[in-house]
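Support reply, case 0932

Customer input (verbatim):
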Amino acid sequence: MSISVETFFLDPSAEGTLQARIQQMVAQGILAGRIRPGERLPSSRKMAAHLGVSRITVTLAYTELVADDYLTSRGRSGYFVSDNAPEPPAFPAQRAHVGTVDWARTIGQRFTPGLSLNKPADWADYRYQFIYGQTDKTLFDSANWRLCALRALGMRDFSALTSDYFDGDDPQLVDFIARQTLPRRGILANPDEILVTMGAQNALWLSAQVLLNSRRRAAIEDPCYPALRTILTQSRCQLSVVPVDQDGLPPDDLPADTDVVFTTPSHQCPTAATMPLERRNALLEKAEAEDFIIVEDDYEFEMSFLKSPSPSLKSLDKNGRVIYVGSFSKSLFPGLRLGYLVGPAPFIREARALRATVLRHPPGHIQRTVSYYLSLGHYDALIRRMSKTYHERRQLLVGALNQRGLTIAGQGTYGGSSVWLKTPTGIDTSALAETLRADSVLVEPGAPFFAGENPPTAYLRLAYSSIPSARIPEGINLIADAIQNY
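Our regenerated output:
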Protein backbone atom coordinates (compact mmCIF):
# COMPACT_ATOMS: atom_id res chain seq x y z
CA MET A 1 0.00 0.00 0.00
CA SER A 2 1.29 3.45 -0.92
CA ILE A 3 0.69 6.50 1.31
CA SER A 4 -0.69 9.65 -0.27
CA VAL A 5 1.69 12.57 -0.32
CA GLU A 6 -1.13 14.78 1.01
CA THR A 7 -0.78 12.95 4.35
CA PHE A 8 2.37 14.94 5.10
CA PHE A 9 2.87 18.57 6.08
CA LEU A 10 5.58 20.45 7.95
CA ASP A 11 4.65 21.98 11.28
CA PRO A 12 5.41 25.72 10.90
CA SER A 13 6.17 25.99 14.62
CA ALA A 14 8.75 23.17 14.57
CA GLU A 15 12.43 24.02 14.98
CA GLY A 16 15.56 22.65 13.33
CA THR A 17 16.74 22.16 9.77
CA LEU A 18 14.36 21.13 7.00
CA GLN A 19 15.95 17.69 6.99
CA ALA A 20 15.38 17.29 10.74
CA ARG A 21 11.79 18.53 10.46
CA ILE A 22 11.04 16.01 7.68
CA GLN A 23 12.54 13.22 9.78
CA GLN A 24 10.40 14.30 12.71
CA MET A 25 7.28 14.51 10.55
CA VAL A 26 7.67 10.94 9.24
CA ALA A 27 8.73 9.50 12.61
CA GLN A 28 5.75 11.08 14.36
CA GLY A 29 3.43 9.61 11.73
CA ILE A 30 4.84 6.15 12.43
CA LEU A 31 4.75 6.57 16.21
CA ALA A 32 1.14 7.79 16.05
CA GLY A 33 0.08 4.79 13.95
CA ARG A 34 -0.93 6.88 10.92
CA ILE A 35 1.74 5.09 8.86
CA ARG A 36 1.92 1.32 9.33
CA PRO A 37 4.76 -1.20 8.74
CA GLY A 38 5.05 -2.22 5.11
CA GLU A 39 3.41 0.94 3.71
CA ARG A 40 5.26 2.73 0.95
CA LEU A 41 6.22 6.38 1.39
CA PRO A 42 5.91 8.92 -1.43
CA SER A 43 9.00 9.09 -3.61
CA SER A 44 11.62 11.67 -2.71
CA ARG A 45 10.68 13.59 -5.87
CA LYS A 46 6.97 13.75 -5.00
CA MET A 47 7.63 14.56 -1.34
CA ALA A 48 10.04 17.34 -2.28
CA ALA A 49 7.56 18.87 -4.72
CA HIS A 50 4.74 18.63 -2.14
CA LEU A 51 6.75 20.22 0.66
CA GLY A 52 8.50 22.78 -1.52
CA VAL A 53 12.01 21.64 -0.63
CA SER A 54 14.92 20.17 -2.55
CA ARG A 55 14.90 16.48 -3.39
CA ILE A 56 18.29 15.92 -1.73
CA THR A 57 16.85 17.22 1.56
CA VAL A 58 14.11 14.59 1.47
CA THR A 59 16.57 11.87 0.42
CA LEU A 60 18.88 12.69 3.34
CA ALA A 61 15.93 12.62 5.76
CA TYR A 62 14.82 9.22 4.41
CA THR A 63 18.39 7.92 4.69
CA GLU A 64 18.59 8.89 8.36
CA LEU A 65 15.26 7.19 9.02
CA VAL A 66 16.60 4.04 7.34
CA ALA A 67 19.66 4.16 9.61
CA ASP A 68 17.34 4.37 12.65
CA ASP A 69 15.25 1.44 11.29
CA TYR A 70 12.10 3.51 10.90
CA LEU A 71 12.23 2.95 7.12
CA THR A 72 13.69 0.38 4.78
CA SER A 73 14.83 0.89 1.20
CA ARG A 74 13.79 -1.68 -1.43
CA GLY A 75 15.95 -0.90 -4.42
CA ARG A 76 13.98 0.89 -7.12
CA SER A 77 10.67 0.26 -5.39
CA GLY A 78 11.27 3.13 -2.95
CA TYR A 79 11.09 3.58 0.81
CA PHE A 80 8.77 1.58 3.08
CA VAL A 81 7.97 1.65 6.77
CA SER A 82 10.25 -0.92 8.40
CA ASP A 83 8.78 -4.04 10.00
CA ASN A 84 10.98 -3.15 12.99
CA ALA A 85 9.63 0.39 13.31
CA PRO A 86 8.25 1.29 16.76
CA GLU A 87 4.67 0.23 17.24
CA PRO A 88 2.10 2.79 18.35
CA PRO A 89 0.50 2.13 21.75
CA ALA A 90 -2.25 -0.49 21.73
CA PHE A 91 -4.60 1.88 23.56
CA PRO A 92 -5.54 5.49 22.78
CA ALA A 93 -4.13 8.33 24.85
CA GLN A 94 -6.77 9.96 27.02
CA ARG A 95 -7.10 13.18 28.94
CA ALA A 96 -9.19 13.52 32.09
CA HIS A 97 -12.16 15.72 31.19
CA VAL A 98 -13.35 16.40 34.73
CA GLY A 99 -10.99 16.90 37.66
CA THR A 100 -12.29 15.99 41.10
CA VAL A 101 -9.24 17.16 43.10
CA ASP A 102 -9.51 20.41 45.01
CA TRP A 103 -6.01 21.66 44.32
CA ALA A 104 -6.49 24.80 46.41
CA ARG A 105 -6.78 22.49 49.45
CA THR A 106 -4.49 19.68 48.28
CA ILE A 107 -1.34 21.72 47.64
CA GLY A 108 0.55 21.66 50.91
CA GLN A 109 2.99 24.49 50.21
CA ARG A 110 2.78 27.29 47.67
CA PHE A 111 5.71 28.74 45.76
CA THR A 112 5.81 32.08 43.98
CA PRO A 113 7.79 32.56 40.76
CA GLY A 114 11.38 33.33 41.64
CA LEU A 115 12.41 35.76 38.92
CA SER A 116 9.52 38.24 38.71
CA LEU A 117 11.06 39.62 35.54
CA ASN A 118 9.02 39.72 32.36
CA LYS A 119 11.35 38.67 29.55
CA PRO A 120 9.40 37.63 26.46
CA ALA A 121 10.36 34.38 24.77
CA ASP A 122 10.65 36.21 21.44
CA TRP A 123 13.16 38.77 22.80
CA ALA A 124 15.51 38.12 19.85
CA ASP A 125 12.84 39.40 17.43
CA TYR A 126 12.96 42.87 18.97
CA ARG A 127 15.22 45.38 17.26
CA TYR A 128 16.46 47.12 20.43
CA GLN A 129 17.21 44.45 23.05
CA PHE A 130 18.29 46.22 26.23
CA ILE A 131 17.65 43.14 28.37
CA TYR A 132 20.12 41.40 30.62
CA GLY A 133 21.69 37.97 30.47
CA GLN A 134 20.93 36.80 26.93
CA THR A 135 23.53 35.39 24.57
CA ASP A 136 24.73 37.34 21.57
CA LYS A 137 25.16 34.64 18.96
CA THR A 138 27.53 36.85 16.97
CA LEU A 139 30.00 36.69 19.87
CA PHE A 140 29.60 33.10 20.99
CA ASP A 141 32.13 30.58 19.74
CA SER A 142 29.67 27.90 18.66
CA ALA A 143 32.16 26.04 16.44
CA ASN A 144 34.62 25.29 19.24
CA TRP A 145 31.81 24.58 21.69
CA ARG A 146 30.48 21.99 19.25
CA LEU A 147 33.94 20.42 18.90
CA CYS A 148 34.30 20.21 22.69
CA ALA A 149 30.86 18.60 22.98
CA LEU A 150 31.80 16.04 20.30
CA ARG A 151 35.08 15.32 22.07
CA ALA A 152 33.19 14.74 25.31
CA LEU A 153 31.01 12.22 23.44
CA GLY A 154 34.04 10.19 22.34
CA MET A 155 34.91 6.76 23.68
CA ARG A 156 37.84 8.18 25.64
CA ASP A 157 35.34 10.11 27.77
CA PHE A 158 32.68 7.42 27.78
CA SER A 159 32.75 7.14 31.57
CA ALA A 160 32.26 10.91 31.99
CA LEU A 161 29.21 10.67 29.72
CA THR A 162 27.61 7.59 31.22
CA SER A 163 28.84 7.30 34.80
CA ASP A 164 26.73 8.06 37.83
CA TYR A 165 28.95 10.21 40.01
CA PHE A 166 26.47 9.67 42.87
CA ASP A 167 27.03 12.92 44.80
CA GLY A 168 30.34 13.77 43.08
CA ASP A 169 31.35 15.90 40.09
CA ASP A 170 33.56 15.53 37.05
CA PRO A 171 37.07 15.55 38.59
CA GLN A 172 38.49 17.15 35.44
CA LEU A 173 36.18 20.17 35.76
CA VAL A 174 36.70 20.48 39.52
CA ASP A 175 40.47 20.36 39.00
CA PHE A 176 40.32 23.16 36.42
CA ILE A 177 38.15 25.34 38.68
CA ALA A 178 40.62 24.80 41.53
CA ARG A 179 43.80 25.37 39.48
CA GLN A 180 42.72 28.02 36.94
CA THR A 181 39.38 29.72 37.62
CA LEU A 182 39.56 30.41 41.35
CA PRO A 183 43.20 31.63 41.49
CA ARG A 184 42.20 34.42 39.11
CA ARG A 185 39.98 35.70 41.92
CA GLY A 186 42.75 35.17 44.48
CA ILE A 187 41.10 32.02 45.84
CA LEU A 188 42.84 28.74 46.67
CA ALA A 189 40.59 25.75 47.33
CA ASN A 190 40.85 21.97 47.58
CA PRO A 191 38.51 19.67 45.61
CA ASP A 192 36.49 18.94 48.76
CA GLU A 193 35.79 22.69 49.04
CA ILE A 194 34.18 22.92 45.56
CA LEU A 195 30.70 21.85 44.45
CA VAL A 196 29.38 22.12 40.88
CA THR A 197 25.83 23.45 40.75
CA MET A 198 23.07 23.99 38.22
CA GLY A 199 23.91 27.67 37.90
CA ALA A 200 24.34 30.44 40.47
CA GLN A 201 20.68 30.38 41.49
CA ASN A 202 20.95 26.71 42.46
CA ALA A 203 24.09 27.59 44.44
CA LEU A 204 22.20 30.35 46.30
CA TRP A 205 19.34 27.95 47.07
CA LEU A 206 21.72 25.32 48.42
CA SER A 207 23.42 27.95 50.57
CA ALA A 208 20.13 29.18 52.00
CA GLN A 209 18.92 25.67 52.77
CA VAL A 210 22.14 24.68 54.54
CA LEU A 211 22.73 27.90 56.48
CA LEU A 212 19.25 29.09 57.43
CA ASN A 213 16.16 28.03 59.34
CA SER A 214 13.16 29.79 60.84
CA ARG A 215 15.19 31.04 63.83
CA ARG A 216 18.05 32.55 61.82
CA ARG A 217 18.23 35.94 60.14
CA ALA A 218 19.45 36.64 56.62
CA ALA A 219 20.31 40.10 55.30
CA ILE A 220 20.01 40.98 51.62
CA GLU A 221 20.68 44.05 49.54
CA ASP A 222 17.87 46.29 48.32
CA PRO A 223 17.47 46.30 45.40
CA CYS A 224 18.67 42.75 44.73
CA TYR A 225 18.29 39.71 42.50
CA PRO A 226 14.54 38.91 42.77
CA ALA A 227 15.04 35.14 42.79
CA LEU A 228 17.28 35.38 45.85
CA ARG A 229 14.59 37.24 47.77
CA THR A 230 12.10 34.52 46.81
CA ILE A 231 14.50 31.75 47.86
CA LEU A 232 14.95 33.32 51.29
CA THR A 233 11.23 33.95 51.72
CA GLN A 234 10.52 30.31 50.97
CA SER A 235 13.20 29.22 53.46
CA ARG A 236 11.04 30.86 56.18
CA CYS A 237 14.06 32.56 57.71
CA GLN A 238 13.86 36.00 59.29
CA LEU A 239 14.73 38.46 56.54
CA SER A 240 16.26 41.94 56.74
CA VAL A 241 16.47 44.24 53.74
CA VAL A 242 19.43 46.66 53.65
CA PRO A 243 19.36 49.51 51.11
CA VAL A 244 22.53 49.85 49.05
CA ASP A 245 24.31 53.09 48.20
CA GLN A 246 26.76 54.06 45.46
CA ASP A 247 29.32 51.63 46.95
CA GLY A 248 27.01 48.67 47.41
CA LEU A 249 26.06 47.13 50.76
CA PRO A 250 26.88 49.33 53.84
CA PRO A 251 28.19 47.00 56.60
CA ASP A 252 27.19 49.44 59.36
CA ASP A 253 23.51 49.05 58.41
CA LEU A 254 23.40 45.30 59.00
CA PRO A 255 21.18 44.22 61.92
CA ALA A 256 23.03 43.09 65.03
CA ASP A 257 21.45 39.61 65.02
CA THR A 258 22.35 38.75 61.41
CA ASP A 259 23.40 35.14 60.73
CA VAL A 260 23.98 35.20 56.96
CA VAL A 261 24.60 38.11 54.56
CA PHE A 262 24.03 37.72 50.82
CA THR A 263 25.92 40.26 48.74
CA THR A 264 27.12 41.01 45.18
CA PRO A 265 30.24 43.12 45.81
CA SER A 266 31.86 43.05 42.35
CA HIS A 267 28.76 44.12 40.42
CA GLN A 268 25.85 44.85 42.72
CA CYS A 269 22.66 43.44 41.25
CA PRO A 270 21.08 45.43 39.66
CA THR A 271 22.77 48.81 40.28
CA ALA A 272 26.20 47.52 39.11
CA ALA A 273 27.89 49.36 42.03
CA THR A 274 31.33 48.02 42.98
CA MET A 275 32.14 47.67 46.68
CA PRO A 276 35.45 49.43 47.49
CA LEU A 277 38.26 47.50 49.13
CA GLU A 278 37.89 49.40 52.42
CA ARG A 279 34.24 48.42 52.67
CA ARG A 280 35.03 44.80 51.83
CA ASN A 281 37.49 44.66 54.69
CA ALA A 282 35.00 46.35 57.00
CA LEU A 283 32.35 43.77 56.09
CA LEU A 284 34.76 40.92 56.83
CA GLU A 285 35.78 42.47 60.14
CA LYS A 286 32.14 42.86 61.12
CA ALA A 287 31.43 39.24 60.14
CA GLU A 288 34.20 38.04 62.45
CA ALA A 289 33.23 40.36 65.30
CA GLU A 290 29.51 39.53 65.13
CA ASP A 291 29.87 35.89 64.03
CA PHE A 292 27.95 35.77 60.74
CA ILE A 293 28.54 34.12 57.35
CA ILE A 294 28.79 35.94 54.01
CA VAL A 295 27.54 34.45 50.74
CA GLU A 296 29.34 36.26 47.91
CA ASP A 297 27.73 36.10 44.46
CA ASP A 298 30.65 37.06 42.21
CA TYR A 299 28.72 37.19 38.97
CA GLU A 300 30.24 38.99 35.96
CA PHE A 301 33.71 39.27 37.46
CA GLU A 302 35.09 38.27 34.04
CA MET A 303 33.58 41.41 32.46
CA SER A 304 36.14 43.76 34.03
CA PHE A 305 37.22 45.54 30.88
CA LEU A 306 37.71 49.03 32.35
CA LYS A 307 40.43 47.98 34.80
CA SER A 308 41.49 44.92 36.75
CA PRO A 309 38.80 43.66 39.13
CA SER A 310 39.11 44.23 42.86
CA PRO A 311 39.84 41.17 45.01
CA SER A 312 36.92 38.93 45.79
CA LEU A 313 35.67 38.85 49.37
CA LYS A 314 36.61 35.17 49.49
CA SER A 315 40.23 35.99 48.68
CA LEU A 316 40.36 38.49 51.57
CA ASP A 317 38.71 36.11 54.02
CA LYS A 318 41.17 34.75 56.60
CA ASN A 319 38.60 33.10 58.86
CA GLY A 320 36.55 30.87 56.53
CA ARG A 321 33.44 33.06 56.73
CA VAL A 322 32.78 33.56 53.00
CA ILE A 323 30.85 31.16 50.79
CA TYR A 324 31.69 31.93 47.16
CA VAL A 325 29.22 31.55 44.27
CA GLY A 326 30.47 31.50 40.67
CA SER A 327 28.78 30.80 37.35
CA PHE A 328 29.70 29.83 33.79
CA SER A 329 26.17 30.51 32.58
CA LYS A 330 26.59 34.30 32.64
CA SER A 331 29.68 34.30 30.42
CA LEU A 332 28.90 31.33 28.16
CA PHE A 333 25.13 31.15 27.70
CA PRO A 334 22.22 31.17 30.18
CA GLY A 335 20.86 27.80 29.05
CA LEU A 336 24.06 26.11 30.23
CA ARG A 337 22.94 26.29 33.89
CA LEU A 338 26.35 25.48 35.36
CA GLY A 339 27.95 27.18 38.33
CA TYR A 340 29.89 26.32 41.46
CA LEU A 341 30.03 26.81 45.21
CA VAL A 342 33.28 27.27 47.11
CA GLY A 343 33.45 27.12 50.89
CA PRO A 344 34.89 25.29 53.87
CA ALA A 345 34.73 21.50 53.58
CA PRO A 346 32.04 21.04 56.30
CA PHE A 347 29.69 23.41 54.43
CA ILE A 348 30.36 21.83 51.03
CA ARG A 349 29.77 18.37 52.51
CA GLU A 350 26.27 19.39 53.63
CA ALA A 351 25.52 21.19 50.36
CA ARG A 352 26.63 18.10 48.42
CA ALA A 353 24.36 15.86 50.48
CA LEU A 354 21.41 18.21 49.90
CA ARG A 355 22.12 18.43 46.17
CA ALA A 356 22.19 14.62 45.97
CA THR A 357 18.64 14.41 47.32
CA VAL A 358 17.38 16.69 44.53
CA LEU A 359 19.42 16.03 41.38
CA ARG A 360 22.51 13.95 42.40
CA HIS A 361 24.85 15.95 40.12
CA PRO A 362 24.76 18.08 36.94
CA PRO A 363 25.00 15.98 33.74
CA GLY A 364 28.46 14.49 33.25
CA HIS A 365 28.57 15.29 29.55
CA ILE A 366 27.90 18.99 30.17
CA GLN A 367 30.57 19.10 32.87
CA ARG A 368 33.14 17.44 30.60
CA THR A 369 32.27 19.71 27.65
CA VAL A 370 32.79 22.81 29.80
CA SER A 371 36.03 21.33 31.09
CA TYR A 372 37.38 21.00 27.56
CA TYR A 373 36.14 24.45 26.56
CA LEU A 374 37.96 25.96 29.53
CA SER A 375 41.18 23.96 29.36
CA LEU A 376 41.70 24.41 25.60
CA GLY A 377 41.66 28.21 25.96
CA HIS A 378 38.37 28.81 24.15
CA TYR A 379 36.76 30.35 27.24
CA ASP A 380 39.51 32.95 27.68
CA ALA A 381 39.32 33.85 23.99
CA LEU A 382 35.55 34.27 24.32
CA ILE A 383 35.92 36.53 27.37
CA ARG A 384 38.45 38.73 25.57
CA ARG A 385 36.12 39.04 22.59
CA MET A 386 33.11 39.81 24.76
CA SER A 387 35.03 42.35 26.88
CA LYS A 388 36.19 44.28 23.82
CA THR A 389 32.67 44.38 22.38
CA TYR A 390 31.03 45.23 25.70
CA HIS A 391 33.47 48.09 26.23
CA GLU A 392 32.53 49.54 22.83
CA ARG A 393 28.82 49.12 23.49
CA ARG A 394 29.07 50.65 26.95
CA GLN A 395 30.79 53.76 25.58
CA LEU A 396 28.05 54.16 22.99
CA LEU A 397 25.31 53.60 25.57
CA VAL A 398 26.71 56.03 28.14
CA GLY A 399 27.38 58.62 25.46
CA ALA A 400 23.83 58.37 24.10
CA LEU A 401 22.32 58.58 27.61
CA ASN A 402 24.39 61.64 28.46
CA GLN A 403 23.51 63.29 25.17
CA ARG A 404 19.80 62.90 25.89
CA GLY A 405 20.19 64.06 29.50
CA LEU A 406 19.17 60.76 31.10
CA THR A 407 20.44 59.98 34.60
CA ILE A 408 22.72 56.98 35.14
CA ALA A 409 22.13 55.96 38.76
CA GLY A 410 24.67 53.12 38.76
CA GLN A 411 27.35 51.65 36.53
CA GLY A 412 30.06 49.15 37.35
CA THR A 413 33.48 50.61 38.14
CA TYR A 414 35.17 47.70 36.41
CA GLY A 415 32.76 46.95 33.55
CA GLY A 416 29.85 44.54 33.51
CA SER A 417 27.05 44.38 30.97
CA SER A 418 24.41 46.86 32.17
CA VAL A 419 23.73 50.27 33.65
CA TRP A 420 21.09 51.33 36.18
CA LEU A 421 19.00 54.24 34.97
CA LYS A 422 16.76 56.59 36.96
CA THR A 423 13.92 58.30 35.13
CA PRO A 424 12.28 61.57 36.21
CA THR A 425 9.87 61.51 39.14
CA GLY A 426 6.35 60.38 38.30
CA ILE A 427 7.27 57.85 35.60
CA ASP A 428 6.24 54.22 36.06
CA THR A 429 8.87 52.30 34.14
CA SER A 430 6.68 49.18 33.98
CA ALA A 431 4.14 51.14 31.94
CA LEU A 432 6.98 52.77 30.01
CA ALA A 433 8.39 49.34 29.13
CA GLU A 434 5.04 48.25 27.71
CA THR A 435 4.84 51.41 25.61
CA LEU A 436 8.34 50.88 24.26
CA ARG A 437 7.54 47.36 23.08
CA ALA A 438 5.40 48.88 20.35
CA ASP A 439 8.62 50.45 19.00
CA SER A 440 10.46 47.09 19.24
CA VAL A 441 12.38 48.26 22.32
CA LEU A 442 12.90 45.91 25.29
CA VAL A 443 13.91 47.33 28.67
CA GLU A 444 13.77 45.97 32.23
CA PRO A 445 11.71 47.93 34.79
CA GLY A 446 13.46 48.25 38.13
CA ALA A 447 10.52 47.64 40.49
CA PRO A 448 10.87 43.81 40.68
CA PHE A 449 14.37 44.21 42.14
CA PHE A 450 13.08 46.07 45.21
CA ALA A 451 11.51 44.61 48.34
CA GLY A 452 8.26 45.87 49.82
CA GLU A 453 4.71 46.39 48.62
CA ASN A 454 5.36 49.83 47.10
CA PRO A 455 8.75 49.62 45.35
CA PRO A 456 10.23 52.62 43.52
CA THR A 457 8.96 52.77 39.95
CA ALA A 458 11.44 55.19 38.40
CA TYR A 459 14.31 52.80 37.65
CA LEU A 460 15.36 50.83 34.56
CA ARG A 461 18.15 48.33 33.97
CA LEU A 462 19.61 48.73 30.49
CA ALA A 463 21.87 45.90 29.36
CA TYR A 464 24.12 45.98 26.33
CA SER A 465 25.06 42.30 26.12
CA SER A 466 22.69 41.45 23.26
CA ILE A 467 22.04 44.63 21.28
CA PRO A 468 24.35 45.37 18.33
CA SER A 469 26.46 48.52 18.73
CA ALA A 470 24.94 50.21 15.68
CA ARG A 471 21.45 50.11 17.20
CA ILE A 472 22.29 51.52 20.62
CA PRO A 473 22.06 55.27 19.87
CA GLU A 474 18.76 54.90 18.01
CA GLY A 475 17.34 52.72 20.78
CA ILE A 476 18.31 55.24 23.46
CA ASN A 477 16.64 57.98 21.44
CA LEU A 478 13.42 55.99 21.39
CA ILE A 479 13.63 55.51 25.17
CA ALA A 480 14.33 59.21 25.73
CA ASP A 481 11.44 60.22 23.47
CA ALA A 482 9.09 57.87 25.32
CA ILE A 483 10.16 59.39 28.66
CA GLN A 484 9.59 62.93 27.34
CA ASN A 485 6.14 61.99 26.03
CA TYR A 486 5.12 59.99 29.09
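We compared this against your earlier run and they match. Two observations from our side: The CA atoms of residues 200 and 339 lie 5 Å apart. The first strand starts at residue 71 and ends at 73. Please reopen the case if you see a mismatch on your end.
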